[in-house]
Write a structure and sequence with these properties.
Elements (H helix, E strand, L loop, with lengths): L2 H11 L4 E5 L3 E2 L39 H4 L5 H6 L2 E4 L6 E6 L2 H10 L4 E4 L4 E6 L5 E5 L2 E4 L5 E2 L9 E2 L2 H4 L28 H16 L5 H16 L7 H13 L4 H14 L3
Parallel strand pairs: 6-10
Antiparallel strand pairs: 1-2, 1-3, 3-9, 4-6, 4-8, 5-6, 7-8
Length: 275
């Protein structure tokens, strides 16, 4: 048994989801159909490839703590070529702050609470208890690895692991895009207004703004569904104006949506309604 496979099985016995990496820290396609990107997937990315395998076979989604999977026929060729073992930090409720160089390490020592530290080739991994969204290049030489990514296993490290602090969470908070004027066309309308009062439209726009600004997840989907609902209710009679649309765009942009995303969502909603 290779040392890497032994390490993977040891981690799996402790509930850690693992996967083999080839040279360059790139995952294998872990089934015959997807090997060498035959399915068109990109196994070095966060998201699995678009394959039709019985289970995800790319990147972080392939990580497993099942010995039958790890030692099974799908992964057997990988362990003969493996260069390193990776794990899915978010899968066990951990976050890795990946510090790529000395300046990044110095920043962490000045800024972050002490926690478990694992030396890397060029810097350090600081590991905290708690999962969060992942993001690369949150500042120079600093990546945050937790959910939907993998990190190399480089040993247990030293120090006491502490709870994920707000200062790390704040590193990946998306800054709102600058609010830009609406550029999407408003339907010309021409049908008879069934609402009979401008108060109905005003209340509808206000509720739509509130729905968007209250979204805590799935902002893209919330914006699209809200645009769809507004256009469905008010888009055919000619009452909806550029000013109303601009208010909806502004609400979406304060949640981090770009002007382009807003325009695309608006256009897609109009298309869905045949406008």
């Amino acid at each position: 048994m290779s040392a890497h496979l032994s390490t993977a099985l040891d981690l799996a016995s402790r509930g850690v989801p693992v996967l083999p990496l080839r040279a360059g820290k790139v995952p294998f396609g872990n089934c015959p159909a997807c090997r060498d990107n035959a399915c068109g997937g990109r196994p070095n990315m966060k998201t699995p490839g678009p394959c039709d395998c019985p289970r995800p076979c790319h990147a972080w989604a392939a990580a497993s703590n099942d010995p039958a999977v790890i030692t099974g026929p799908a992964w057997a060729p990988a362990w003969k070529q493996v260069a390193a073992v990776a794990y899915h930090p978010g899968g066990i409720g951990l976050t890795v702050v990946d510090l790529d160089h000395a300046d990044a390490v110095a920043w962490a020592r000045r800024t972050l609470p002490a926690t478990r530290i694992v030396p890397t080739t060029r810097g350090e991994h600081w590991i905290y208890r708690g999962a969060m969204s992942s993001a690369n290049a949150v500042r120079d030489g600093v990546d945050v690895k937790s959910t939907m990514v993998y990190a190399r296993w480089l040993g247990a490290g030293t120090g006491t692991m502490t709870v994920l602090p707000d200062v790390v969470r704040s590193l990946v908070v998306k800054k709102p895009s600058p609010v830009r004027p609406v550029t999407a066309p408003v339907p010309a309308g021409g049908g008879e207004c069934r609402h009979r009062t401008s108060a109905y439209l005003e209340r509808g726009i206000a509720m739509a703004e509130q729905r968007i600004t209250a979204a805590t997840s799935g902002v893209h989907a919330t914006v699209y569904r809200t645009f769809l609902a507004v256009l469905s209710a008010h888009g055919r009679c000619g009452c909806l104006t550029d000013t109303h649309a601009a208010r909806l765009f502004a609400a979406a942009q304060t949640k981090g949506e770009s002007a382009r995303h807003c325009t695309d969502a608006w256009s897609n909603a109009r298309t869905a309604l045949g406008m």
